[in-house]
Write a structure and sequence with these properties.
A 3-stranded antiparallel beta sheet has the order 1-4-5. A 3-stranded parallel beta sheet has the order 6-7-8, covered by helices on one side. With 205 residues, it is an alpha/beta fold. The chain starts with 6 loop residues before the first strand and ends with a helix. Strand 2 and strand 3 form a beta hairpin. Helix 1 packs across helix 2.
């Protein structure tokens, strides 16, 4: 028989960024990452998920995610099968929107199911297709030479793919990207992220 969801707990976690790598972009400063941990318990195991709660980015935060889990999702999911398909259907039945909160709950269910079955989530999803994932480093929207110095630090820390925060004024954006490109060289993967900070005209230009 499919295991059942026994309880869902939440915990707030505020992860500080290293001060020298704090991110300034088109929507202000990002110096800490708030997450709501979701703990789904079933048959003596605990599955973990997380909700990335940044109001300006996702529209969801600690308070909204916590309220949605406590008031709506926990009562609806208690005693239900620990099957992601069932959980997704049930969450959509009782709660509109809240994709980040629902993702955190679903993640925790996949994790718990994998632990009960004694296999990785990758195996549950049909088997792994890679052995590692490359992480992209976000370079803050700071002065050009400062951005280049951050790029160098990140390179020395082992990062090989990068994006530069823009949306702080087109002239400064272009100078910053040029400085980072000069520092990293022509062959390195480099993107830009305006976080909605460019107008359509600026983006086209």
């Amino acid at each position: 028989a499919m295991p059942k969801i026994e309880s869902i707990l939440t915990e707030r976690v505020l992860v500080p960024l290293r001060p020298e790598w704090a991110i300034k972009g088109g929507r202000g400063m990002h110096d800490r990452s708030p997450f709501l941990l979701i703990r789904v318990r079933s048959e003596g195991v605990e599955g973990l998920g997380e909700v990335s709660g940044t109001y300006l980015w996702s529209g969801e935060g600690f308070e909204t995610a916590e309220a949605a889990v406590n008031a709506v999702l926990r009562p609806a999911l208690a005693g239900k099968e620990l099957a992601p398909k069932v959980v997704r259907r049930e969450m959509d039945r009782v709660l509109a929107a809240f994709p980040f909160t629902k993702a955190g709950v679903e993640m925790a269910c996949w994790d718990a199911l994998g632990k009960i079955c004694g296999v990785s989530v990758a195996t549950l999803l049909g088997g792994p297709i890679r052995t590692s994932v490359v992480s992209k480093f976000s370079i803050s929207g700071v002065a050009p030479l400062e951005a280049a110095a951050i790029a160098r630090q990140a390179w020395e820390a082992g990062f090989r793919k990068f994006k530069v925060k823009v949306g702080t004024g087109l002239y400064q954006d272009l100078e910053r990207v040029a400085a980072v490109r000069k520092e990293l060289g022509e062959k390195i993967s480099l993107g830009v992220d305006a976080n909605g900070g460019w107008s359509l005209g600026e983006a086209r230009r």
